[in-house]
UniProtKB/TrEMBL annotation:
InterPro entries: DapB_C (IPR022663), DapB_N (IPR000846), DapB_N_CS (IPR022664), DHDPR_bac (IPR023940), NAD(P)-bd_dom_sf (IPR036291). This is 4-hydroxy-tetrahydrodipicolinate reductase. GO terms for biological process: diaminopimelate biosynthetic process; lysine biosynthetic process via diaminopimelate. Its main location: cytoplasm. Pathway: Amino-acid biosynthesis; L-lysine biosynthesis via DAP pathway; (S)-tetrahydrodipicolinate from L-aspartate: step 4/4. GO terms for cellular component: cytosol.
Length: 271
């Protein structure tokens, strides 16, 4: 099979630059386009140079429809509004859409799901093997422990992160809720401040720390009578996520339409 031709959305961003590097180092994929926000001062700049590589001749553009004519997939780590705009174009073009953007609302997620009867979408709040294994373990542990164990999720990220809780924290919360057989929407406690009252039994708590250059730390603690169990993942570099996204795109190339997760890509869905 010929190399998969990939577009990087948000090519001037932190993940975008990491994705351009990952594609540059890869076997089986080539960079076919670099998307940036309309009006961005980076439009027209070379994607390779921005990523710290030699020039590759792919200039940043805001025109996804034009650049996707000769592409097989798009790696999208941007902002919710951009991802939602990209969903329709990727589906119309019939290209694989890997969605890593977090901070999406319930209605954003409904829009993404609405195209998956005709389009291939791989979506995950975290593209790393370790976090997806952690989610499987959290689900199992939550199932084994009763409501005498409170569940608290703590995440730490770099000072530039704009959404909280992180997509990964919410994914781990979903895993814990599913292990317990409850819905996260009805059992989460977020942003405690002031006279909060006692903890509601069965709730899953979230806390977010921001600072420095942390790529992404997540821990899930089960707090029971006289004992605590903490499961932790620490991402050391965002290239971890870029390699995961590339793996997802190559896996999805040629798959039938559907809404896939990173657990599907990694063969962890049945754990
Ligand atoms: N699922 C996972 O494994 C991971 C997910 N993420 C998520 O990815 C997202 C991006 O993170 P990060 O790279 O750190 O953020 P950045 O802010 O560095 O990058 C986002 C980029 O998207 C660009 N952008 C904004 N609007 C558009 C548009 N309409 N079209 C094209 N590009 C646009 C921004 O441009 P401008 O700066 O001009 O606004 C910016 O260059 C976040 O939601 C983050 O949580 C991050 C790491 C891993
Ligand atoms: O914004 C980030 O940086 C990250 N975002 C993702 C999230 O919200 O969980 C994944 C990773 O933790 C890095």
């Amino acid at each position: 099979m010929s190399d998969m031709r990939l577009i990087v959305a948000g090519a001037g961003g932190r993940m975008g630059r990491a994705l351009v590097r990952a594609i540059g180092e890869s076997k089986g994929a080539v960079l076919a386009g670099a998307l940036e926000m309309p009006g961005s001062e980076l439009l027209g700049k070379d994607a390779g140079v921005l990523a710290g590589l030699p020039a590759n001749g792919i200039k940043l553009s805001a025109d996804l429809w034009a650049m996707s004519k000769e592409a097989d997939g798009i790696l999208d780590f941007t902002v919710p509004a951009a991802t939602i705009a990209n969903v329709a174009i990727a589906a119309e073009r019939g290209i694989v859409h890997v969605v890593g953007t977090t901070g999406l609302s319930g209605s954003d997620n409904a829009v993404i799901k609405s195209v998956t009867n005709r389009a291939v979408v791989v979506q995950s709040g975290n593209m790393s093997l370790g976090v997806n294994l952690l989610a499987a373990v959290v689900k199992r542990v939550a199932k084994a422990l009763d409501q005498n164990f409170d569940i608290e999720i703590v995440e730490t990220h770099h000072r530039m992160k704009v959404d909280a809780p992180s997509g990964t924290a919410l994914m781990l919360g979903q895993a814990a809720a599913s292990g317990r057989g409850v819905t996260l929407d009805e059992h989460s406690e977020r942003g405690r401040d002031g006279i909060t009252g006692a903890r509601r039994p069965g709730n899953i708590g979230f806390a977010s720390l921001r600072g420095g250059t942390v790529a992404g730390d997540h821990s899930v603690t089960f707090l029971g009578p006289f004992e605590r169990l903490t499961l932790t993942h620490q991402a050391e570099d965002r290239m971890l996520f870029a390699h995961g996204a590339l793996k997802a795109a190559l896996w999805a190339h040629g798959k039938k339409p559907g809404h896939y997760s990173m657990a599907d890509v990694l063969g962890l869905s049945d754990i």
